[in-house]
Amino acid sequence: MRRGLTLGKFAPFHRGHQRLVETALAEVDELVVMVYATDVTDVPLQVRAGWIQNLFPTVRIIEAWDGPESYGDTAEIRREQETYILKKLDGLRITHFYSSEFYGDHVSRALGAVDRRVDEARRAVPISGTALRADPFAGRPYMAPRVYADLITKVCFMGAPSTGKTTLARTLAERHQTAWMPEYGAEYWLEHQVNRRITLAQFEAIAPEHNHREDALVLDSRTYLFCDTNPITTYVFAKDYHGDAGPVLTRLAREAEKRYDLFFLCDTDIPYANTWDRSGDPKRKWFQKQIVGDLAERRVPFFNVRGPLHERVAYVEDILRQHKKFGNLLDICHCDCVG
């Protein structure tokens, strides 16, 4: 049986890594991928391993949490790496070692395996993990959509109608030179409403299309994607209209609980824009209570955003400066996070 091995930090997993894995899968019966823990990225090992497993379901993943951090071509480092790899494999026989690095020579010899180098000169895929970490946006063509999407912080603004969600999302997108997602539900309602109503079945069509557009925008986002509402808001609207929500919307609203990195609730403390498609300021206030109650029931933490636009922007920017996508939300120094 031909069994291959490749290893690395995969921080992030890019087209060069994909080429390596694809080459190996075409040549061996089984491929083992050893993923190392590392401090060069905040992306957890589990997430990086998940990228590979998602793209290549047949590979066997070994998580190397305690792997050596040293990198180089000294006798001591070579010995340390070889000892660790052999121990981690625990007797698993490797016939082919795949890499695009100098260590292919000594690791393959330690394994008694074929030294299989793939695009060592980086001609086919001229990119490196270091370059991608420095500027993920510029390097996004070298990453699979799933990988790049996981590097983007998704920020969702929620709140009743006329609470400033659209203005805030658009303003922050302009400041960060990135994309923003308008509320698809509002667009759908304008096109399909009859006597200012849409049916329960029509509500089922909103969240899937909203998510589809959002997923497309992520791939053209720079660090952040700012979103004007989400399926949870659509769910609350459906409950308000019909006292119920369909199975698709209910499922997508539940998935939305983990779809975003940050939730901001826009307050009703700004003047109400009494346009024809809205139902008045009293409705705005108690619809806001419905949203707050729904978020509380879901245990979704959110930050309250208040005041005029410039204060709201400054507040959100302060949160963004402190936020780490794969960090602990409670490390952010603000006392009005609700959850």
What is the CATH domain class of the largest domain? Answer: Alpha Beta
Overall number of strands = 11
Radius of gyration: 25 Å
Number of helices: 13
Task: Assess the beta-strand content as a share of residues.
Answer: 5-15%
CATH second-level architecture of the largest domain:
3-Layer(aba) Sandwich
Give the overall silhouette.
elongated
| Average pLDDT figure | 94
Q: Determine the CATH superfamily of the largest domain.
A: P-loop containing nucleotide triphosphate hydrolases
Strand order of the largest sheet: 7-8-6-9-10-11
Helix-strand sequence:
EHEHEHEHEHHEHEHHEHHEHEHE
Q: In this structure, how is the largest beta sheet organized?
A: 6 strands, mixed
Number of domains: 2
Helix content: 40-55%
CATH topology name of the largest domain: Rossmann fold
Distance between the termini: 53 Å
SS-derived structural category: alpha/beta
The parts where pLDDT drops under 50 for at least 5 residues are none
